[in-house]
Amino acid sequence: MRVVLLGPPGAGKGTQAVLICKKYGIPHISTGDMLREAVASGSELGKTVKSVLDAGELVTDKLVMQVVGDRLRREDCARGYLLDGVPRTVVQAEILREMLAETSSALTSVVQLSVPEQVLLDRIRHRGGAGARTDDTAEVAAKRLQVYWTQTAPVAEFYRQEGLLVEIDGVGSVEEVSERIFAAVER
Ligand code: AMP
Fold it and tell me: Ligand 1 centroid vs 53 CA: distance in angstroms?
């Protein structure tokens, strides 16, 4: 099972990703988590990307796909994985396709979580609390949504043309949405 989870910020990707990975016993590969860890650790990569994350903009395609390529080569990915937060641009999707073609391990499905914009903004604003992210302010949230519509929404179209895209209604309880996703990836 090699799955990509797509959807705007606030769509519930992170929550659903954890449930999918637990159910199928596959690693959860979140580029956002990996980049935030790099920032927290103060590594060279972290220093390079911190201001980009704080602004809600995208890290360069080359840098992100290098991180992803290194991660996918690790042994725990041999039986599948879930990608969360990547590909974020059509260029990243093309690079991923090339990388997977080299190992004859194409994606098995791409799940798009669809949620109306007003619901997204409300959800992002109310995240807060213990898991608060420095990029969850209203201003940066709006920027991340704008980046999503311009740069990431075309990725869904890319996968639709590849015949891999499954659109899921992301409005409902966590359980309702996860059941929809399970049904989609098991098709
Ligand atoms: P996320 O947790 O997926 O919302 O990612 C948080 C931030 O990390 C994004 O706003 C971007 O700055 C950066 N980021 C995560 N994944 C990618 C990616 N695939 N390409 C470029 N930037 C990314």
Answer: 7
Supply the pLDDT for residue 121.
78
Domain count, the chain: 1
DSSP, residue by residue, 37-62: HHHHHT-HHHHHHHHHHHHT-PPPHH
What residue numbers bound the domain in which 138 lies?
2-185
Cα–ligand 1 centroid distance for 147 (angstroms): 10
Distance, CA of 78 to chain centre: 20
- The 3 state secondary structure assigned to 102-169 is HCCCCCCEEEEEECCHHHHHHHHHHHCCCCCCCCCCHHHHHHHHHHHHHHHHHHHHHHHHCCCEEEEE
Structure tokens at 48: 């390079």
The CATH code of the domain that includes 108 is 3.40.50.300
Q: What is the pTM of this model?
A: 0.92
Contacts of 168 (CB under 8 A, 6+ apart): 111, 112, 113, 114, 177, 180, 181, 184
pLDDT band at 130 (very low <50, low <70, confident <90, very high): low
The atom of ligand 1 lying closest to the CA of 9 is 4
Q: Tell me the two tokens of residue 175.
A: 């359980």
